[in-house]
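Two proteins, back to back. First:
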Amino acid sequence: GVVITASHNPPQDNGFKAYFDDGAQVIEPHASGIIAEVNAVTGAAAPTVEAGEIITVGDEIDRAYMERLETLVIDRAAINEGRALKIVYTPIHGTGAILVKPILKRFGFQYSVVAAQDTLDGRFPTVKSPNPENAEALKLAVEQAQTEGADVVIATDPDCDRMGVAVRSKEGEMRLLTGNQTGALLAWYRATAFFVQGILNAENAKRAVMIKTFVTTDLQRAVAEKAGVRCIDTLTGFKYIGAKLLKYERALPADIVCRYREMSERETRAARLADSTFFVFGSEESYGYSGADFVRDKDGNAATIMFCEMAAAAKKRGLTIPELLDSIYAEYGYFEEKSESLVFEGADGAEKIRRLLQSYEDSPPGEINGIKVAEVENFEKDEIRDVEGDIIPKEKMLILTLSDATRIAVRGSGTEPKIKFYFFGQMRPAQGHATADDLKNFKETVGNNLAALWRSLRQDVDRRLEQ
């Protein structure tokens, strides 16, 4: 199948996403096969006899999907007791308007919608770009939240696979969360709730997994390790998470595989915990989240339900989301991420990006800002395997691990004339929980360290381009 969409991009970037028969976006060799078929087309259009038929999917599909979305809720009591939570939602002119509103209503949440953005309009007239990663796209929703005294702003992009949020702090300010922060909150909540509900325990945790991309926060790994759950890194793109979910399905006994997709969520969960792998949570730093394998892509509808349950549980405990996040930092350590991009337009720019990536591959830095580079992983040349032993597909990306556990990833953008740098810093208490003073120090130290690393790396880029 295909999804015709501009996704989270400006309207002129409209195109389509291709999916295979497992419901996930295509990976190799199918991706190259599809491109080859597209490139082989010479006529303007297919003959009428080959054009096929358009069939409009009925409401029964929406109802079935809504029922499955309800199974994402782990602790219904948390929602029932946290209904004082006030939500402002915006679909940013997209498809989230179809199902997010009725699912919020079904659970009894107090919510309002940004009326100016509650229209299906592919021009996205109220924003420069309908990307919930950008503060500008949430501006109207945040203003409405301030007027209404809402706790949470939720925004989904036009094809409703990404979700961005803003949350009210104890001081009353609305703060935007990064994709890494949102993902860490959801990973922590879902892992914790599964144990509290008895779905996971010390015996079966080894059959559970969290999946994230290499350029997503290591806080999720810390949460998984403490819970005794595997944490797997994949390349950027939810198609790689989807490929893992297909692998886990195929690992089930044959009599279950043949009827797996007709089974209830409770039945598939029991089967996976008994004979394969149970998927706890998956995310990528670019605002994509998944909590179950009945949708094998990032899903803004699912993300909204998961976030609202977590926020309601925090409200029940008398905590704002920033306070909850700090409590997680206190337990697992402080993790902060920073991303930077350098834009090089045109043919000359493309050559600069190529030269830079090749330069880092040929002669990676031995130290950055005086900190020794302890390990270099070359994803194009090295054979890199994940914790399950599966080979990571080749990609032009380097990950540098410094002696203080800071990680830096360098890769070219797949869609824009950019070279991207990702920084991952962390500080953990020597023992026990971090105090409020510890956290204050950690945040300042890590933030300053990442800024200094970027300054040093930026100068290194200039030197390499001059060579």
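And the second protein:
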Amino acid sequence: MLMVKLQISNLSHEYDDREVLHDINFTFDGARMAITGPNGSGKSTLTRIIAGLLTPTVGQVSLEIDGVHVSRECVRDIVGLVAPDIRLYGELTVRENLKFIASARGLGSTKINAVLDEVNITDRADDMVKNLSSGLQRRACYAAALIHDPTVLLLDEPSTNLDKKGIEMVRDMVDRRAKRGIVVLATNDADEAAMCESYVDLSEVAR
């Protein structure tokens, strides 16, 4: 198992002069962590900063794997993100989306069947995404986030649009992925947070 450490140092972020995150500091080197807090506390913002999609106004994010620092340029190679506002191309099939994403990452298509199986969507892989239910589209987004076998998996509102079987799929996947890296859940759902061993409550540290 890889030893992964995530460190957030003196991190603050603003949107149009409105401070969303203020002086966040924590270090995590476990397997599963929940970022909790009410709506507007900055959970999604912090998740995107960790994923390298946003640059914080102030402060730093540091990732280490087995004691080796991961440069910000390489973060996208080790991080997978699932979030409610991330969509796949509706006019393409699930499989075509995965092939496109794998190609954009410089990967082959050898892992596509494996991730389709992992999220239990193999039987709909050749359907256009726009024709799938919201729950199946969400499963497809999980497959897309897993295609490069990320060491750090970030899940923003993990159960959005998922039924009972979909939620069970997420729980099983979190268990598997936490054995070979870290999983971070941004949530205000108590059941989702209960999957984790560590917590950062932004309602306490972000104001």
